[in-house]
Amino acid sequence: MEGATVPIIVFLIVYALITFELVNKAVSALLGVMVLLIMHVVDEHTAASLIDFETIMLLLGMMSIVAVLRKSGFFSILSVRIAELTKGNPLKILILFSIVTAVLSAFLDNVTTVLIIIPIIIELTRGMGLDPKIYVISQAVISNIGGTATLIGDPPNIIIGSKVGLTFNQFIGNLIIPVIISFFAVLLFIWFTNKEKFKPIDNNLAKLFSVQLLLEKIKVEFLNTRIDKKLLVKGLSCLAIAILLFVTQTVTKMSPGVVAVFMAMVLFTISGVDVEHMLEEVEWSTLLFFAGLFILVGVLEHKGVIEWVAHKVFLRIGDNPYIMVLTVLWVSGIVSGFLDNIPFTITMIPIVRLMLEVNPIPNNILWWALALGACFGGNLTMIGASANIVSVGMAKQAGVHISFLEFMKASAAITIMTLIIASAFLTLYLWISL
Amino acid sequence: MNDKNRQNMYKLLRNLGDVQGIAQMTVLSLNSFIESIRQLKCTKDQLQPLYFELAEALKSSQPKIIPLIHLLERFEKEMGEILTPEMDLEEIREKTIANLQERIKQFQDNAARVTENGLKYINNHDVIIVHSPSSVVTNILVQAKEKWNKRFEVIILEHNRDRTRQIIQALRDNDIDHIVAPAYNLSHHIDRATKMFVGALTITSDRKIVAPTGTAGSVSLCHLNGIPVHLFANTLHYSHKASTDQYIYQEEENTHSANMDFSMTTHSHDLVSLDLINHIVTENGELDKNDYPV
Questions:
Q1: pLDDT tens digits for range A49-95
Q2: Interface contact A208-B36, CB threshold 8 A
Q3: Whether B199 contacts B136, CB under 8 Å
Q4: d(CA B22, CA A53)
């Protein structure tokens, strides 16, 4: 671990800055990288080689496709149609929006999903005289659960998939069962613990009238941007082709990052959109944040710090596969609840690799434990996942204040419940595999 | 219906009125009424109190939506004649929906007749100022171009971004020349203008109109410059009561500028004297300003 002191200190400071949101995430990570470069801990060529461009390309491509779809008005139509389908029934609002959130999160990033769903759900519930808080929290939580199902659904999965070389089909095939069970368990839990808030209103004419008016208003507001049907068809077609190429990855041998950027560029070309404007929609700060973190963790790995942590912490638990899997799951779950799950996943990947060298657990179960832990764990607190922070922030902008404790009161039980479901699934899976 | 729900409903009605215009909002309200009757689950005995609760709330909205109130009164009168104690809930539901659909048709027919009557007020080479135009005013402009191939220009005074967008779209779709300007810049366009078209929520018994905010200033400037102002509204907009009884919504909002905090009072609608209006066009043609058709 020669020369590891500076990168460790820099890494811990950057982690603290990210966790407590003292400085912008991308700035924190890149500032850390700059310190390492200035102090000659690493040279710029090595630093650049540590960036996992596969992950960056996948995010860039998906963000570009989403930007075009947003411009087409697709998300407005979708949310208004769902609002209409609910007919103002509180339970239907919860169920239908949760299904949409889960499905969207599985194929788009969670932040995009909550950016689409939260405004309309606040508008709808508040207009009906309901308390939007539980709806906002439920959608944030569901977006993290839905995103767990696929390679492209949640940043930890994108990172694991890219760094470990797991395919889209492997993710969906292995994670869909715990995700679906968790989804229904969470909905049931939310309904059971808030029964009063989900009472139907169809015996109250005045409330029904207000809801109908509200739906009209939502239609007017959210369909304000004209629907560009041609762009919508092109955007959806490119997204569908991208997903098809993800699914057939083993046949085409095209990595998800290449597929995403390729389809985004095809979409830019055939749609004739203002590319400069579309590129402004890409979250460059997120991409820079990822790049910075890859370098920081890569340097720690080069200096032997990761190996040291693995030996001192994770490899001490022995080589019992059940204990290894459950430890990775629960440690990931709890740590991801308090720290950002992106840097945590990037840090854990080399550690899990070392653990697998000691005891090669079959069927990538240790990786699924990391994915389930990091994604489900993000629900533990308000700061556990970007979708939570964005949802609470949007609610605050709309005048709905959700405190850290209020969020945790609802989400902690859900997180523990989903981690128990994941534990049961992984234990069973391991038992079958051994 | 508690006060919070009532205020929520009034806010919704105001928002819809701002964005869609009064005529559209009235139709949307009646459609919402029909849909809620369809979805309502109650016994026959519960129906009447539930209706009265909603009707009372609607009749006390802030501001009062006079066309809707007139239509509801007509609905109540006719339903009183139609309903018999032997009718079951489904039959009542059916009759109620049919009558409400009749009311929508009545309102739309009136609006169509106002549009028809309004067409003759557009001449070739007119430069027409519009401020938060109702759907009737928009239809007059569109049909004058479409049916009569009139050549004129429209100065759209921006009031509500969504509403302005709608009229721009309608004019663009029909290839009608137009410019968009903020209402406070009207003085720069006034020399070119030949007439102004406005709509109104209500015409009150003390000879005022309740119109979207900003209308009063624009109408006054036109009046001062001798530009004739045309009001297009069907007779359902006439109220039996004075402007003080229109419950125009007033809001006090704390605001701050630099390091100074102050409270700002805003009203949801303007009041404009009928003396500033030169022509009132209804479904029955042009009315004398002193006539009061209700």
A1: 999 888 889 889 988 998 898 888 888 788 788 888 888 888 999 99
A2: yes
A3: yes
A4: 56
Tell me how crowded residue A318 is: count the other CB atoms within 10 A of its CB.
11
Angle at B215 between CA B210 and CA B218, to 5 degrees: 150
Q: Indicate which of A216, A219, A220 best probes the interface with B, i.e. most B CBs within 10 Å of its own CB.
A: A216
Burial (CB < 10 A; 0-12, 13-18, 19+), residue B262, is exposed
Query: Which residue bears the tokens 């739309």?
Result: B108
- In angstroms, the CA A320 to CA A301 distance is 25
| pLDDT confidence of residue B107 | 92
Tell me whether A209 touches chain B (CB under 8 Å). Answer: yes
* Main-chain phi, psi angles of B286, to 5 degrees: -75, 135
Residues of A in contact with B1 (CB under 8 A): 206-207
**Whole-angstrom distance, CA of residue B64 vs CA of residue B205:** 14
Measure Cα distances from A179 to A147, A256, A324, A418, B48 in Å: 9, 22, 21, 9, 48
Q: Which residues contact B180 (CB under 8 A, 6 or more apart)?
A: B156, B158, B164, B168
Contact B272, B219 (CB under 8 A): yes
Closest CA–CA distance from residue B259 to any residue of chain A (Å): 22
Give the Cα separation of A124 and A84 in Å (integer). 10
Q: What is the pLDDT of residues B262-274, one digit of tens each?
A: 999 999 999 999 9
The Cα A261–Cα A57 span in angstroms is 6
Instruction: Confirm if A128 and A207 have CB atoms less than 8 A apart.
Output: yes
Query: Strands B195-198 and B126-131: what pairing?
Result: parallel
Mean pLDDT (chain B) is 90
B244's tokens: 């003080």
Tokens of B52: 């009265």
CA nearest neighbour of A84 among B18, B100, B32: B32
Instruction: Report ipTM (2 d.p.).
Output: 0.84
- Comparing C-alpha atoms, which of B75, B50, B70, B62 is closest to residue B13? B62
Q: Please name the residue of chain B whose CA is at the shortest distance from the CA of residue A127.
A: B8
Q: Which residue of B has its CA nearest to A202?
A: B40
DSSP string, A108-125: S-HHHHHHHHHHHHHHHH
Interface check B20 vs A, CB under 8 A: yes
pLDDT above 70 for A223: no
Interface touch B165/A224, C-beta < 8 Å: yes
Judge whether residue B155 has pLDDT over 90. yes
CA–chain centroid gap for A289, Å, is 15
Rounded CA-CA distance A86/B166 in Å is 27
A51 close to A291: Cβ distance less than 8 angstroms: yes
**Percent of chain B whose predicted confidence (pLDDT) is above 70:** 99
Residue with tokens 């029964």: A195
Residue A67 · residue A108 · CB < 8 Å: no
DSSP A42: S
The full 3-state SS of chain B, as one line of letters, equals CCHHHHHHHHHHHHHHHHHHCHHHHHHHHHHHHHHHHHHCCCCHHHHHHHHHHHHHHHHCCCCCCHHHHHHHHHHHHHHHHHCCCCCCHHHHHHHHHHHHHHHHHHHHHHHHHHHHHHHHHCCCCEEEEEECCCHHHHHHHHHHHHCCCCCEEEEEEECCHHHHHHHHHHHHHCCCEEEEEEHHHHHHCCCCCCEEEECCCEECCCCEEEEECCHHHHHHHHHHCCCCEEEECCHHHECCCCHHHCCCCEEEEEEEECCEEEEEEEECEEEEEHHHCCEEEECCEEECCCCCCC
The pLDDT of residue A115 is above 90:
no
Compute the distance between CA of residue A202 and CA of residue B104 in angstroms, rounded to an integer.
24
> pLDDT class for A226, splitting at 50, 70, 90?
low
Among B57, B214, B166, B123, CA closest to A210: B57
